[in-house]
């Protein structure tokens, strides 16, 4: 029987090229590795050709590109046969829209607010400017709307199978409101000159029966379409008559006819750039093709979870990872409903169900306790591992290097604030405008606050969101929690301190709107629906603002040490002490022992081993500084300079050298390396939004970047640079490999459920997505695994570049977790003391449950033990001892109370040893939130 709490999870990215059958084929290998649960990317029906699955267009169907129901059945059987669990990455926040594949969205475009699916989308129907009727903006046009119209790119077509009319812009379907069908039919019959034909007469008779602006209505439309479809010769007649709407050059009458028809729809076509200023539906971040869902609507919740409920009821789904829960209006309500749904699905066979959430926590922020949730997907613990392993003594020199290179302060806060301003002015300007208008309407609704001008309210609210330090609060329709109230009040005071105009109570008003205190009895009578809508929508806005500003902007501007530029992390962070790490782990063991611990995901900015390499630069800051200085001189002739443009910019060039070191292929062919680095550099430059951006690509700068990378990676043009880079890369790669062994050891043994991203059993030197979604050679891994049953660690260490040592150690760790599953799932965490000259280079702790125990020790800051990364460290290099009081190692007689580090690290600089706990036992405490 599959364990409710996973022993270890393994993330697979499912695509048309790696489908359900491909996943089923690797289950035996994953079982042999020691994995207990497959953690699958979204597998509901998504947009055709999707490489990630997050653009779901139908939550009620399995993705046919992955193999549909039949393929999923075969995967389910493979999982059952190997006693394997399945965790689904589920997307409740948004769906894929535009194009022609989402039936809900197409229905909304056809019927507007009258569509039964309109309630499922967060659309502000009355927000479009200069428009008599409400509508939703469709920013799909690649040129201007007028240019697309006049060139004939927008067409009106008739579907004889449906009896329906739609506009089409390339692959985008634009359903025509049926209330306009009669008008269209009269026009096309006249254009075809078919008034006296049998088909023409029947068509005109049909059109004449439906009079008025709202006919045919939704109830009448199916019969209208069916009758039109049944008229013999109608399709040919309409095809000829549609020439009246066939816009194109030198066809002004037809252009106007099509334009007037489109203007009377429930949507407004526009240039894609209009999205940043005029969009009026909630999106996933700034992605126009992903529209937010209102899962707070009970019908919408039930519809999108129908398939999930069926899979749980059938025993084919054992867990969920909930994507982007910070986008939901009321996450607490969502998880209460979800827990009820799971109980209903399980019926009398109710058992624990594993739930984790994608949640990025700010510094010092605690996870909100949601019903049934076991924890997060582990971004915060990935960064904790990095911070405890990184050498703190090297961060001050790296601060100074970054100050000189960038000519800016190493402090992150000013840079983050600038990034937020940029995002507010561009990517999320429309969402910000919707909120400020709503705030102004609230103020104008009572005489006591109507003197707050819209402009002043906008400025005050802007200061608030600029200073807001985390992703969101968690207000419900009731009063805010003390924590959220304190957070809002503290942010208001920071905003007030930056305000240079007269205050006149505007910040008190804003605070009371955000906390919904405006609705307290005895206060001014503000409209309750507007106040609640504002307060709850702000929560859905601050998350995307922070994500786009920090992860997708600041991370690509601030390059002091790229190992710290990771999802959920702080690029300016200091190292954390071993004692602080121990305190965090004890707290986690008590509060969230079953959340995931990740070191790589589909969202991370680079592979886990590339990050471990870059981390090592903090150990050799002097050599790194010298190397960069030399490289800048060697590569100066390869810079592309046109006027004041320098490609790459100086700070960006510094970032590139770190990225190169992290991903540098050691003892591997590098036929695609330059191409991969060029793609990474282009994405990084656009995300940084300085010299170029996604909204306004600077083609000259981007071409310069490609040229620079091509030149410096060309042996004929840059042999001296490449020799120097290769020399340092080999040393950093060894230090990184050692860091990696410590990293995965901690992941697999600290409180939490270790999650392994596909392919990371070998060295993972990926760059940011889509580079980290490259195909994985599972056959090579599966073929090697049996030979590692009794590994020769000395031989594996000698050949460390091939990555086999990582696979062997991963298997050893997971074997331990499998054998002692209860200990790792429910056990205590106890720090262990290390003495001697090298005590600061070791992290040691015990996991214990009853008399069973495991002793874990990992080394850190390896430069001193490896000749600066030139040789694999030997055990005798480590001077010190591990305190084992109260423990007896397996296979050893009771007596020794310490173990020399030279013996502990005799084979590898990491150790996981079974032991018996001989000390006094405390009563077991109830653990975990779920």
Helix content: 40-55%
SS field, number of helical segments: 33
> What overall geometry do the principal axes of the alpha carbons give?
globular
The portion of residues forming beta strands comes to: 5-15%
| Backbone CA Rg | 31 Å
Structural class: alpha/beta
The stretches of 5 or more residues where confidence is low (pLDDT under 50) are 923-927
**Based on DSSP secondary structure assignment, what is the total number of beta strands?**
28
Mean pLDDT: 95
The neighbouring-strand order within the major sheet is 16-15-14-5-2-1-20-17
How can the largest sheet be summarized? 8 strands, parallel
Distance between the termini: 20 Å
Detailed description of the structure:
- The chain has 930 residues and is α/β, with parallel strands linked by helices.
- It contains 33 helices and 28 strands.
- It has an eight-stranded parallel sheet with strand order 16-15-14-5-2-1-20-17. Strands 21-23-24-28-26 form a five-stranded antiparallel sheet.
- Strand 1, helix 1 (20-33) and strand 2 form a beta-alpha-beta unit.
- Helix 19 runs antiparallel to helix 20 and helix 23 crosses helix 28 (715-749).
- Mean pLDDT is 95; it is low at 923-927.
